[in-house]
Specification:
Elements lengths: L1 H23 L5 E5 L10 E8 L3 E5 L20 E12 L7 E6 L11 H13 L5 E5 L9 E6 L8 E6 L13 E11 L2 E7 L5 E5 L15 E3 L7 E4 L12 E5 L13 E4 L8 E4 L4 E13 L2 E13 L2
Antiparallel strand pairs: 1-2, 2-16, 3-15, 3-17, 4-7, 4-9, 5-6, 5-8, 8-14, 9-10, 9-13, 11-14, 12-13, 17-18
Length: 320
């Protein structure tokens, strides 16, 4: 009898576990309708009504940067690029003129180590002695000193892999003239179809600087006179010169950026409008601009047993 009771208890436990497991695997449901009171004008709220059993709901408005179809996108086709520019300003300071060269490339394979100064110096020396193959010289002559000068370059040809190189080669002419300083601000501006325009300033770009002078460590930077400075408030990038007699050598410094694919984008983002701890009633969203949008709601149920999603699209046309 005892054995029979044990078997019956075990069978009941198995059935209970199976029942619980089945309940944990229920499919998410999410029904969305537009409220009859909506006016569908820019700047006025749109009300979405819900029915369903989803534990969590996320919302994609359909605006640029918030489209469900692009939630996993990391790049766009090159033909969807509408404009690529490098803009900014440069101020040559006091001292010997024409002491800075700026190069662009779409062929540069970043090959600097960052922790082996002599190896990096040898790599750069070889590149320079071979004529900077694969690089285009875009700046080499200074304008009026102590004045900001705007610049703008079309960088469309570098879309696949854009890299910048700065070569600061100041001279004191045997300690008779000041070694020139430069202040530089800049931004890479990207316009893509279906994506809001974006910019990266020089502060946002990864650079490595290498000082070729054996008198200093190869990675000597952010000091004062005679160094490249990335943390100066005067400009995003500063090549800091010095008085004629301060140093008995001429500065020879290179700064290279890590190449950037200019068709890269961040995945579109959603808004979490419900989680397991709250109920979801009518949801309100306001579109700022007229247009036709595909609003997407994703109902989600997720447990240790698995995940279920229900995607619901609602087409919304907003007028002035």
């Amino acid at each position: 009898m005892k054995k029979t009771k044990t078997l019956l208890f075990f069978a009941a436990a198995v059935l209970l576990a199976a029942s619980c497991k089945q309940e944990l695997l229920f499919d998410a449901s999410c029904q969305v309708t537009l409220d009859e009171s909506n006016t569908y004008r820019a700047g006025e709220p749109v009300i979405f009504n819900f029915e369903g059993n989803a534990d969590a709901v996320t919302f994609f408005s359909g605006e640029n940067g918030h489209q469900y179809i692009y939630k996993d996108r990391l790049t766009v086709p090159f033909e969807d690029i509408t404009a690529l520019t490098m803009t900014g300003r440069i101020q040559p300071r006091y001292g010997q003129d024409n002491s800075l060269d700026i190069y662009f490339s779409n062929e540069y394979e970043f090959n600097l180590k960052g922790d082996d100064g002599e190896a990096d110096r040898a790599t750069i020396r070889k590149m320079y002695e071979e004529g900077m193959k694969g690089w285009d010289l875009v700046y080499s002559e200074d304008d009026k000193i102590n004045t900001w000068h705007d610049y703008s370059y079309d960088i469309s040809k570098y879309a696949s892999s854009f890299a910048i190189a700065y070569h600061w080669h100041s001279t004191s002419r045997g300690q008779t003239v000041t070694q020139r300083s430069y202040w530089i601000d800049g931004a890479v501006n990207v316009s893509l179809k279906g994506v809001d325009p974006s910019s990266k300033t020089l502060k946002d770009i990864e650079f490595i600087s290498v000082m070729m002078n054996p008198e200093r460590d190869a990675y000597w930077k952010n000091k004062s006179n005679g160094s490249v400075v990335f943390n100066n408030s005067a400009a995003q990038l500063v090549f800091q010169g010095c008085a004629a007699t301060e140093f008995d050598y001429d500065f020879d410094v290179w700064v290279f950026s890590r190449p950037i694919a200019l068709n890269g984008v961040s995945p579109d983002k959603c808004q979490v409008i419900k989680n397991i701890s709250n109920k979801l009633g009518p949801f309100t969203y306001t579109y700022a601009e007229p247009g036709t949008y595909t609003a997407t709601f994703v109902g989600i149920n997720e447990t240790i047993q698995g995940r279920s999603e229900k995607v619901k699209n609602v087409r919304v046309t907003i007028t002035n």
